[in-house]
Amino acid sequence: MRHTPSNPVFTAIDKSDLDLARDLASRIAAHTGGIKLGKEFVTAFGPDGVKAVVGDHIPLFLDLKFHDIPNTVAGAVRSAAATLQPNMLTIHASGGPAMIRAAADAAAEFGENRPLILAVTVLTSMDEDDLRAIGVDASPREQVLRLARLARDNGADGVICSPLEIADIRAELGPDFKLVVPGIRPAGSDHGDQKRVKTPVEALSDGADYLVIGRPITEAEDPATAARTIAESLS
Ligand SMILES: O=C(O)c1cc(=O)[nH]c(=O)n1[C@@H]1O[C@H](COP(=O)(O)O)[C@@H](O)[C@H]1O
After folding, report:
1. Can you give the residue range of the structural domain that contains 61?
2. DSSP run (H or E) holding 136
3. If you count Cβ atoms within 10 Å of the first and of the last residue's Cβ in the chain, which end, N or C, has fewer?
4. Does 39 belong to an annotated binding site?
5. Of 15, 39, 51, 65, which is the active-site residue?
6. What is the pTM of this model?
7. Count of structural domains, the chain
8. Parallel, antiparallel, or unpaired for β 116-120 and 158-160?
9. Are 154 and 113 in contact (CB under 8 A)?
10. Is 157 annotated among the ligand-binding residues?
């Protein structure tokens, strides 16, 4: 695994232009803890594109949100860990106990180079109405806690959750369970499609381990300054 960053921010580079992604990464590298690459980028450019952006040293959060039968997810985790050595990768907690366990066991095969397995709970773009629309009769808070418990009980290292659920999960699942938090918006910035948001300082003081921040950095007029300003606000 790449080194563990001291800056808690992973910048999400959600781009389908390789040169732009590479340029952004080199401009912000000194001011971000790591880089998150996900479906948009990896589908376009594959593992070689990922390597072109993060090189050997930038901590990598590989966000492909695996959700499939256990055997397929275990294979995907092995392929990702062997090919790209990410610090962390994502699965959907709603894939269920056997799928979460299969992902955790596959990651464990990589010993000290294993990626952290983070389970996505309820997407930060979803609210209670969205949950109801997919047949879940619970508040986002209740559903996130249920899925976080399920993730912990089946060997995941932590969860992705919105800033509004950090304190509850931390209180219930203890200090070692990793909380990785998107839906972060510096004061005054555009919320876009995110519905459950807090500022970087609020999220860290509530107990987040890592923050995932995309557009407030990547769409800023000067991404390096935006990343540096956020990092300074947290130090
Ligand atoms: O897994 C994620 O990282 C994730 C989970 C979630 O519930 N909500 C969420 O926004 N994300 C990711 O976090 C990033 C947020 O980007 P911005 O909204 O641009 O800051 C995107 O790359 C999303 O894919």
Report:
1. 9-234
2. none
3. C
4. no
5. 65
6. 0.94
7. 1
8. parallel
9. no
10. no
